[in-house]
Amino acid sequence: MTPSTEAFRRLHQAEQPLFLPNAWDYASAAALAGRGYAALGTTSLGVAAAAGRPDAAGETRAETVALARAIAGLCLVTVDLEGGFSEDPEEVAELAAGLAAAGVAGINLEDGRADGSLAPPEHQQALVAAVKRRAPELFVNARTDTYWLGGEHATVTETLRRAGAYLEAGADGIFVPAAADDALIAELVHAIPAPLNILFLPAHHRLDRLAALGVRRVSCGSLLFRAALYATVAWADAIRDGEPPPPGKLPSYGAVQGLVREGAAG
Amino acid sequence: MTPSTEAFRRLHQAEQPLFLPNAWDYASAAALAGRGYAALGTTSLGVAAAAGRPDAAGETRAETVALARAIAGLCLVTVDLEGGFSEDPEEVAELAAGLAAAGVAGINLEDGRADGSLAPPEHQQALVAAVKRRAPELFVNARTDTYWLGGEHATVTETLRRAGAYLEAGADGIFVPAAADDALIAELVHAIPAPLNILFLPAHHRLDRLAALGVRRVSCGSLLFRAALYATVAWADAIRDGEPPPPGKLPSYGAVQGLVREGAAG
Question: Is the ipTM of this complex over 0.85?
Answer without folding.
Answer: yes
